[in-house]
């Protein structure tokens, strides 16, 4: 298990790093089994400390949590409780479905773009219909079942997840609807 513990414009002491590794290690022993790596980032926002934790599991799923508190240890502990709750739910769902993924999730590399929005596009007609690309990156699309995709989206706290459907071998999308339900696009 690899830990990457960093602070954004604040110093992270040895005691906090040891505390973070110990606490997350106990959570992983209880629920996750084989996490591959964890990224823990501490920062300060006004008078509060912010802790963000992202954990990659050996099954290919990713879970993340974010918490705020006045004390830095309290922020980490709240974040650790959120990770614990997410992993507990994940493990319960795996047991409920009586399915254990034996092999890791297959990932496909694709291009991802960030497009710039025009500030005055509401009032004026654009000169061209070609968008301005701000950033171009590589991203990965996992090969999952629909249930696993919904679980991955909830674990990551993302509003939408693009995945490759294992059963139909096509690209699908799951997203959180405004009414609180989950939408599934299967072209």
Automatic annotation (TrEMBL):
<comment type="similarity">
    <text>Belongs to the HPF/YfiA ribosome-associated protein family. Long HPF subfamily.</text>
</comment>
<dbReference type="InterPro" id="IPR032528">
    <property type="entry name" value="Ribosom_S30AE_C"/>
</dbReference>
<keyword id="KW-0689">Ribosomal protein</keyword>
<feature type="domain" description="Sigma 54 modulation/S30EA ribosomal protein C-terminal">
    <location>
        <begin position="130"/>
        <end position="183"/>
    </location>
</feature>
<comment type="function">
    <text>Required for dimerization of active 70S ribosomes into 100S ribosomes in stationary phase; 100S ribosomes are translationally inactive and sometimes present during exponential growth.</text>
</comment>
<protein>
    <recommendedName>
        <fullName>Ribosome hibernation promoting factor</fullName>
    </recommendedName>
</protein>
<dbReference type="InterPro" id="IPR003489">
    <property type="entry name" value="RHF/RaiA"/>
</dbReference>
<keyword id="KW-0810">Translation regulation</keyword>
<dbReference type="InterPro" id="IPR050574">
    <property type="entry name" value="HPF/YfiA_ribosome-assoc"/>
</dbReference>
<dbReference type="GO" id="GO:0022627">
    <property type="term" value="C:cytosolic small ribosomal subunit"/>
</dbReference>
<keyword id="KW-0963">Cytoplasm</keyword>
<keyword id="KW-0687">Ribonucleoprotein</keyword>
<dbReference type="GO" id="GO:0043024">
    <property type="term" value="F:ribosomal small subunit binding"/>
</dbReference>
<dbReference type="Pfam" id="PF16321">
    <property type="entry name" value="Ribosom_S30AE_C"/>
</dbReference>
<dbReference type="InterPro" id="IPR036567">
    <property type="entry name" value="RHF-like"/>
</dbReference>
<comment type="subunit">
    <text>Interacts with 100S ribosomes.</text>
</comment>
<dbReference type="InterPro" id="IPR034694">
    <property type="entry name" value="HPF_long/plastid"/>
</dbReference>
<comment type="subunit">
    <text>Associates exclusively with 100S ribosomes, which are dimers of 70S ribosomes.</text>
</comment>
<dbReference type="Pfam" id="PF02482">
    <property type="entry name" value="Ribosomal_S30AE"/>
</dbReference>
<dbReference type="InterPro" id="IPR038416">
    <property type="entry name" value="Ribosom_S30AE_C_sf"/>
</dbReference>
<dbReference type="GO" id="GO:0045900">
    <property type="term" value="P:negative regulation of translational elongation"/>
</dbReference>
């Amino acid at each position: 298990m690899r830990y990457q513990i960093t602070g954004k414009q604040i110093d992270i002491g040895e005691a906090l790093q040891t505390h973070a590794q110990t606490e997350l290690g106990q959570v992983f022993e209880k629920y996750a089994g084989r996490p591959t790596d964890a990224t823990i980032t501490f920062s300060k926002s006004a008078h509060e400390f912010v802790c963000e934790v992202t954990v990659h599991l050996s099954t290919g799923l990713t879970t993340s949590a974010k918490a705020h508190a006045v004390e830095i240890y309290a922020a980490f502990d709240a974040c650790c409780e959120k990770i614990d709750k997410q992993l507990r739910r994940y493990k319960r769902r795996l047991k409920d479905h009586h399915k254990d993924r034996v092999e890791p999730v297959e990932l496909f590399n694709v291009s991802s773009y960030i497009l710039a929005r025009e500030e005055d596009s509401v009032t004026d007609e654009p000169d061209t219909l070609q968008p301005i690309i701000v950033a171009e990156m590589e991203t990965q699309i996992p090969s999952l079942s629909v249930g696993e995709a919904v679980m991955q989206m909830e674990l990551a706290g993302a509003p939408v997840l693009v995945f490759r459907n294992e059963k139909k071998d096509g690209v699908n999308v799951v997203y959180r609807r405004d009414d609180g339900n989950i939408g599934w696009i299967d072209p």
